[in-house]
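COURSE: Structural Biology Practicum
ASSIGNMENT: Worksheet 4, Part C
STUDENT ID: 0417
INSTRUCTIONS: Below are two proteins. For each, the amino acid sequence is given first, followed by its C-alpha cell string. Answer the questions at the end about the second protein only.

PROTEIN I
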Amino acid sequence: MANYDYDLFVIGAGSGGVRAARISAAHGARVAVAEEYRVGGTCVIRGCVPKKLLVYGAHFAEDLKDARRFGWDVPDCGFDWKLLRDNLLGEVDRLNGLYNQTLGNAGVEVILERATVTGKHEVTLAGGRKVSAKVILIATGAHPAVPGCPGHELGITSNEVFHLEALPRRVLIAGAGYIANEFAGIFNEFGSKVTLINRTDVILRGYDEQIRDRLLQISMTKGIDFRFNAKFEGIEKVKGGLKVSMTGHEPIEVDLVLFATGRVPNTRGLGLEAVGVALDDKGAVVVDADNRSSIDSIYAVGDVTNRVQLTPVAIREGQAFADTVFGGKPHQVDYENIPSAVFSHPPMAGVGMTESQARNKLGAVKVYTSDFRAMKNVLADRNERSLYKMICDPTTDRVVGLHMIGPDAPEILQAAAVAVKAGLTKDAFDQTVALHPTMAEELVLMK
C-alpha cells in the first residue's frame, strides 16, 4: 500500500464538499479540504441562503400594504437597503464560521488556499506545497456565465449583487431561469423598475407550462417588463447610467445590469485535463453513478458535474461518495422525482413530470387543477390567483407530477413530494382528510 498524506483531499468547501469531507472523516478517513474563498460555497455565501433572505425582506412590501386591510394602521414605510444588506452579510459570516467549526469538530483539516490537481494522487497548493492523497474529490461548484458582448464588464452577476452600495432605480436582468425571475421579483418589490430580457420567448424552461405562464402573467401585472427574443448587442456608459442595446428592441437605459444567464462548472485551471480527467463540452467533470471520473482516484460531486445544480443534490452526492468509498455502505443518488422551487413573487414549486413530459412518456394523462385565490389575498383585495396541478398516469392512477404557484408553495410541496416519490395514487390523496382552512387542502380536493 502506498503511503499518502491524506486518505481524501477535497477541493472546494461548498455543500457537497463539506458533506463528503465530514462524513468521510466520521468513517475514519484522514481528510483535508482546500477552499480558495470562504467555507460554505455558493449556497451559503452567495446563493440560495442570502437570496432567500432578500426574498423575505422583499415580501414585506406586500405584507405591509396588506396589513391595512386586516386592521393595522401601518404608515408609509421607507426601505433601507444598506441595513438589510449588512444584516444579511452578517448572517453569511455567522454561517461561514459554523461551517468551519463543523469541519474542525469532525477532524477535517481546512486549508484556505487554491488547490490544483497535478497528479492522479497529487494536489499542489497555491503556496507551492505538494500533498498526496489516496482519493481526490473535486467539489468546486460553478460560476455565473457572462455574455461576451461589448461592455459586458459593466454588468454584475449574482455573486456581486449582495454587495451593492445602493439600491438601483432601474434594473435590467438578462436571463429567464430561476435566478433571473427571483431577482426580478426582489428588485421589483424593493421599488426598482425591472426589465427582464431573454434570448427566447420562454421563461423557466423545464417547469410546467401552465405554472410558468401564471408567473409571467402575475409578474407583468406587478410591473415587471419582459423583452423576449432579445440578444445582447452591447452595454455602454452614458450620462446617468448604462445604455443596453439588444436585437429586436429599442435600447434601454438602466442603472444596473444583472447577468443571470446560467452557470458554468469551475474546472478551468484545476489541472484536470492534464492528468486525464474527462470533461464534457461545458467543462463539467464526467462521472459515473458512483461519482467517479475517468481517473479511478479522482471523483467529483455537485455543480461541477453539471448533473442537477441543486444544493440538496450536491449534499446527497457527497454523502453517497463518502459512504461508498470510505464507509463500506455503497449507494447511489436517485435523481428521479427531485423537487425544486423558484422563490419568485409568488413562489413556484414542482416535482415529477410536467404535463408535456408525461404526455410524451405515457401517451395519455389525467390532469387535475385547482385555480383559486388564497384566503389572505381575498381579504387583502389582492387579485392574485394560485394554481395547483396534479398529473396522473391514467392506467395506474399514480401521481407522476405535482406543480404549484402561490403563497408558501415550496413549503407545501416538500411534504407532497414524499407522496410522489413513494408512488402514491390520486385515490390516496382523495382519501386524505383536508386541513381546513388551508391552501394545502386543495391538494386533496381536486376532482
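PROTEIN II
(use this one for the questions)
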Amino acid sequence: MKTIKLLLAVALLQISLKSCKQPSEETSASNWSLVLVDSLQVGHLGEMMLLDISPNQELFLTADYQKNTYFIINRNGEKISEINKSGDQPEAFGFAYSEMIFWDDETIFVIGSKGLKWYGLTGNETNFVPFNSEYQLKGIMRNTGGGPIILQDRGNTKILYRGGAVNGKRTEPGYLEKIRGGTLIDPETFDLEHIFPLEKDSRFFDGKFYDDGDLYSRLAVGKDFVYVTYDSNPVLYAYEKTHPYKLSFKRELRLININQSEGMPAEYVDYEVYLDASKGGLRNLQVDDRYVYLMYFEGIPKERLAEIEQLYEIDELKADAAYETEVSKREKRMKVFTLKGEELSDIKLPNFLDSYWGFIARDGFLYFNKAANNEIEEDFYTLYKLWLEQ
C-alpha cells in the first residue's frame, strides 16, 4: 500500500496554483489565488471521496460508494479502519440518508433508514435512535462537505441537514410553500423541525415547475449565520443563528458562463425524483472563520446532452464515457465572500481539483479531492490541502 507522499518539495509549497497552469486557466482577474500547501496520497483501487475531517484534524473520513465502504485515514495516509454498515446486517444503518460525518474525535455518525447511528472508529455501534417516519428526503446526492452539521440550537445540540423536496406532485397548489432548505433533528428523539422556507421572491415562484435537483439546498454554519443556497436559484441567503432563524441578508449572484436550469411547463413535469448532475448551477457551500465559499458549475449545454442521449441508443458504455468526460471538462468556479456576504472574488478552479463534487473549508484551509483520471485507472487516492490568499 502506498502511504502519504508529498508531491511537492518544501520549497515549492508556497507557489500559487495559477503559476502552474496554462494562461487559459487563469484563476481570476484579481490578485486572489489558491496556494497548494500539502497533499495526502492513499493506496486505493476504486473511487474515493473525502466526507469529513475530525475536529482535532488528525483523521480523515472518506467513502467509496461503489463498495458501500467508509474509511478512516490518518495523517500518514494509512487506512486505520474500513467500515461497511449498509444493508441489513447487525448494527447496519440500512440505506444512508446522509453522508457520514465525525460526531467528535472518537465517533462517526450517519442518518440512516433504520435511524440515527453512531459508530466508534473501528465500526462498533455506540448509539442508536430509531427512525422517525415523518422524516422525508428525496434524491440523495453525495458530495464532499455536504453531510449533516452539528449545531447548537437554544442551548441544545441538534443535527442540521438539508431539506428539499417533499412528497406530492409539483403541480399541486401550495407545493413550493412546503419546501424547506433545512431540517433540524433532535439526536436524542429524532424529533424534527423544518426551517428555511423558500423566500417568496426566489425564482421558484415564477409560475414554472422545478425538479428536486433544482430545489437541492446547500448549508453552511458560520459564527453568526447559517448560510443557505439552492442549486438553481442564484442567491446566497444568510439567517440569524438564533431561533427562529430569521433572514438577515441575501445576495443576488452573478454567475459566469452558466447553462442555467430552466423551469418546466406543467405538461413536461416528470413526477419522479430527478437529480441531473449535468445541470449548471450552485454546487458547494462552505464557511470558516475567514470567508464564505460558494462553488458553482457550468453545466452541459442542452445540445450536447441531446447528442449523448442519442448515443445511449447505440452504445451505452460510450454514452456513459462521453457524459463523464463532459462533466469533468466543464468549468467550475468559486465565489468568495466576507462573512457578511460582500463578494470578494470569483475564481476559476483548475481542472485537477475534483471541485464538482465539492470541498471542505476548515480552519482557513480548503481540502479538495483530486480529479479522477478518466483515461487511466489509478491505484491511489489523492487529497489536496490549499490556502486562499490575496
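ANSWER KEY EXCERPT:
Q1: Residues 133-357 form one domain.
Q2: Helices lie at 302-312, 316-329.
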